[in-house]
Amino acid sequence: MDFHPPIHSRSTEELLKMAADAASWQPEARALARMELDKRGIPAEDVKDREVAFSAASIALEALHEQHARESYTFGKMAEIFLSAPFLLVVKVLSWKIHLNFKLGLTELDRRNYKRKYRQHMAMLILGTAFYRVVLVALFSI
Questions:
Q1: Residue 7: DSSP 8-state
Q2: 39-48 tens-digit pLDDT
Q3: What is the CA radius of gyration of the chain?
C-alpha cells in the first residue's frame, strides 16, 4: 500500500499522531507508522501514552459535541435574530454582488454541532423575514 508522502519520510510527530489516531488512519498505515517509530528508537511506551492521551481528548471532544447539540438560544437572542432577519439576508445577498463573504453564522453552528441553535437560528431567519413581508404587504395594501 502506497502512502503520500511515504511513511518513512514523515516527521516523528506526524508518525506519533498517525499511530494514536485510530479514527482517521487505516490499520495498515498505523502499523507502518509504529514500525517506523520503532526503527527511529521511539519507545513503545511513548506511542501508548500518546494513544491514551488521544483517546481521552476524543472522549472529551465527543462530550463537548453532545453538550453543544443540546444548547439553546436565549429568548432575547432569538428575538434579535427574528427582528434583524431580513436585514441580515439583504446584506448577505449584497455581499455576493460585491464579492464579499458575509456570514450568517449557520455554518459555524453546524460545524460545532450546535444542532438546536442551528434549527432555532434558521427558524428565526425564516419567520422574521416572513413577518416583515406580511407587515409590508399589509401596510402597502391599505
A1: G
A2: 988 888 888 8
A3: 25
